[in-house]
Amino acid sequence: NAGVTQTxxxxxxxxxxxxxxxxxxxxxxxxxxxxxxxxGMGLRLIHYSVGEGTTAKGEVxxxxxxxxxxxxxxxxxxxxxxxxxxxxxxxxxxxxxGGYNQPQHFGDGTRLSIL
Amino acid sequence: DAKTTQPTSMDCxxxxxxxxxxxxxxxxxxxxxxxxxQIHSQGPQYIIHGLKNNxxxxxxxxxxxEDRKSxxxxxxxxxxxxxxxxxxxxxxYGQNFVFGPGTRLSVLP
Lengths: 115, 109
What we know:
heterodimer; A: mainly beta; 7-stranded mixed β-sheet; B: mainly beta; 5-stranded mixed β-sheet; 0% helix
């Protein structure tokens, strides 16, 4: 019963490098989300997806791209990493079965440091 | 979206009930109240949510005032493992969540 799984758990990058964070959910949820959390702050929404093949911008989308080629996976890409993107990244998913008031379920996060 | 206001921090004695308040005085009719918690650096954990009726599950109870301008999350018998940051979120139906800074609850032995 994995729920939401994020890969990798930790990563250190140099400025200008690129990488992709992977989120996988096994709950057959329609919606998926990427958030970032900086020290002492709440979560901020980067991008989200309401279904396979669709994505939308959240509150802080600049510097990130996303793809949802399969329903169970949501990828977050950093094309040219910057120190300001040092953060903890959380993925979440939610179902619309039963209505659009269903809660989101979160993974354990990816801790990303950019030097 | 309704803004929520929570105390920055609270203490609670182990074994006692923890009552966490949340003010959402500008809440609209279609906004649900959700509670999440975040233990240390783990991902947020869903606790409970409701629209206007009080709700109870295995983790907690949610008491929403009749005018819906405030709510209280109740952890009936707090343990040390309940030490966490608790987030109260007022979310319009079908819209995205907005997380504020939350309340840091410390359960003391």
